[in-house]
Amino acid sequence: MRTNFQTxxxxxxxxxxxxxGQSLRTLSSNGYLALGYxxxxxxxxxxxxxxxxxxxxxxxxxxxxELVIQAGMRMAQVxxxxxxxxxxxxxxxxxxxxxxxADLR
Length: 105
Prior knowledge:
Elements: H1 5-19, H2 24-30, H3 35-42, H4 50-60, H5 64-76, H6 82-100
């Protein structure tokens, strides 16, 4: 199931924040954001404006475009590794083979 930008962006922000060891309160004060609003962004309940995305990025110490790209990749369900891409290709081949020979059973 594909995800929307709000959800994907919120997940990316939460992952980045936790990876940096920041609490929600710390990020909200670092980015000059209301704690409640930031919480809603992380839960995918608010779609942030470009100004909010910039503030969140500043609070995390990353570039805004990095957050947006990560959210976009998550929306597109782009595999993270070559191994997962290979596994996906194998699954497609197996399904194609099964459907091709299903009539022979």
